[in-house]
Amino acid sequence: MSRAIKRIYMGIIFLFLYAPIIVLIVFSFNKSKSRGQWGGFTLSWYAELFKSRQIREALYYTLLVAVLSTLISTVVGTIAALGINNMGKFSRTVILNMNNLPVLNPDIVTGVALMTLFISVKLELGFLTMLIAHIVFSIPYVILAVLPKLRQMNKHIAEAAMDLGATPSYALRKVIIPEISPGIISGALMAFTLSIDDFVISFFTAGTSATNLSILVYSMAKRGVKPTINALSTLMFLTVLILMLIINKKSDKGEEILL
Amino acid sequence: MKKNLRVLSYPYTVWMAIFIVVPLFLILFYSLTKGDIHNISSLEFSLESYKKVLEPLYLKVIRDSFLLALVSTMICLVLGYPVALIIANTDHKYRNLLLMLFLVPMWMNFLLRTYAWMSLLSPNGLINRFLTMIGLPRLEIMPGKVAVLLGMVYNFLPFMVLPIYTVLSKIDKHVLEASSDLGGNRLVTFMKIILPLSIPGVVSGITMVFLPAVSTFVISGLLGGGKTPLIGDLIEQQFLFSRNWHFGSSLSIILMVMILISMAVMSRIDKNNQDEGGKAK
User: Fold this and answer.
1) Contact A233 B5 (CB under 8 A)
2) B20, B97, B236: best mutation site toward chain A, by most A Cβ within 10 Å?
3) B26 and A18: CB-CB below 8 Å?
């Protein structure tokens, strides 16, 4: 009895979670423009999608910003974490509290605050400001991912390497970096996902000259429901789904090797 | 070596000062001044924008945002706790699968998930077609508060389930066995052991749902259709359309204060709970 109730409850929850997504995907193949009526199978919305220059441009900016901000924030964040790890207790607390501000603040406040700064220093809103904003909110996550690995690391192995004649930079490359690489990788993945997924902060800092996919979806959705957004959503969802499955598979394998 | 490495954090400290601290001070500065924003020398100290917040029209918006966020958090808690409990009690074999199934919708962009509901709920969307087909009255909740609430629950439910699940799955099974050996029935075991032990998860779940819910402007913009503006919509409007940075800034400060207070309250509850746990021993 109680087992049946549990099953029914989970069934309803899963229906609630999946129904909108499934409807979205199914209707991306709908010939009729209406949202409630099935008018036959078509791929024309996808064709329209690939023809649209606006969407290609948005995709280009989304990926470019994600790749650049991931690279920069991973490098800067890792270097900063190395420094923070060697600080005294007081200055470390101060720095980490500052670092946590973008994590804890609502996105909208981070967005408008950065926009205010850019406009105040007369930096025109566009690709560069969006990139800076993405780096600003990504670095804290990289630091939060790398720092625990640095603390777990045996402090003496770097010293041992240098006693054996390694230069500090050689010890860093050959000993410290490999040791903390799981933290660096998870920080980088986090930065990439956050950047791809971000809407609010981009919305305030991108201006009109650079538009990413989320901003495009928002402005299209505000004007009304359109089948091309369904097609775009389906493709974006499937891409993320495949990426996540690959990442999960990889980490499963990694664990197997470790075991 | 230690001292040399410390230098590595200096560039980032400067970066944080410029891009994290200065912008927040700018917001504080603009909230406390009035005048032309493009001419800094014309700005003078004023509490005008805070006074404006107290006008009934805007107070209502703040109250609405707070209440909607609160109600959606409560719904998430009521719906999400059983989900977390069921997943945590599932066999190891299926547990990860269930958890994964629960998380997959989260991989879809937040905007797209909200958009999906837009097309379902719209006046001639699928739900209304279906209702008319079986002879039921049409559902006219979008645009409106109910649709906004639905969007919040849909988007933030996993933020409630995950922390509760994490805490529940760590509860030592022997404690539960001990409870039933000592004659506690399932209700007693739940009320006296599972529930108190899961409070830290509930607290972080509440915080993780409330924060994005109270500051959203996307959900209310798309599903509320401008009918029920929230504090986030007001901030967006002030910065992008009305260009009244002073008012927008004071609203941002008020939003931050609201969030700080609710976080303080939640951590207080968490702490009290831990203290009581200590006494019980």
Assistant:
1) no
2) B20
3) no
Choose among A112, A132, A230: nearest Cβ to B235. Answer: A112
For residue B154, what is the nearest residue in chain A, using CA coordinates? A17
Give tens-digit pLDDT for A98-151.
Answer: 999 998 899 999 999 999 999 999 889 999 999 999 999 999 999 999 999 998
Going from the C-alpha of B174 to that of each of A58, B177, B193, B214, the distances in angstroms are 54, 5, 12, 40
The answer to the question of residue A212 being in a domain is: yes
Tokens of B261: 């207070």
* Full domain range(s) for residue A115: 52-224
Report the C-alpha gap between B245 and B74 in whole angstroms: 33
Give me the domains of chain B, ranges plus CATH numbers: 49-280 (1.10.3720.10)
Instruction: Say if the Cβ atoms of B109 and A21 lie within 8 Å.
Output: no
The count of other CB atoms within 10 Å of the CB of residue B4 is: 10
Determine which helix (DSSP H) or strand (DSSP E) holds B88, and give its type and residue range: helix B56-88
Q: How far apart are CA A227 and CA A103, in angstroms?
A: 35
Q: What is the CATH number of the domain that holds A102?
A: 1.10.3720.10
| CA distance, residue B139 to nearest chain A CA (Å) | 14
With CB atoms and an 8 Å threshold, state whether B128 touches A87. no
What are the tens digits of pLDDT across the range B248-260?
999 999 999 988 8
B281 min Cα distance to partner chain A (Å): 32
In 3D space, the residue among A149, A145, A136 whose CA is nearest the CA of residue A187 turns out to be A145
**CA B30 to CA A251: how far, in whole Å?**
47
Tell me which residue of A173, A171, A187, A176 sits closest to A153, measured CA to CA: A176
The ipTM (two decimal places) reads 0.86
Residue with tokens 């205010």: A116
Instruction: Name the region of B243 (left: φ>0; alpha: ψ -120 to 50; beta: rest).
Output: left
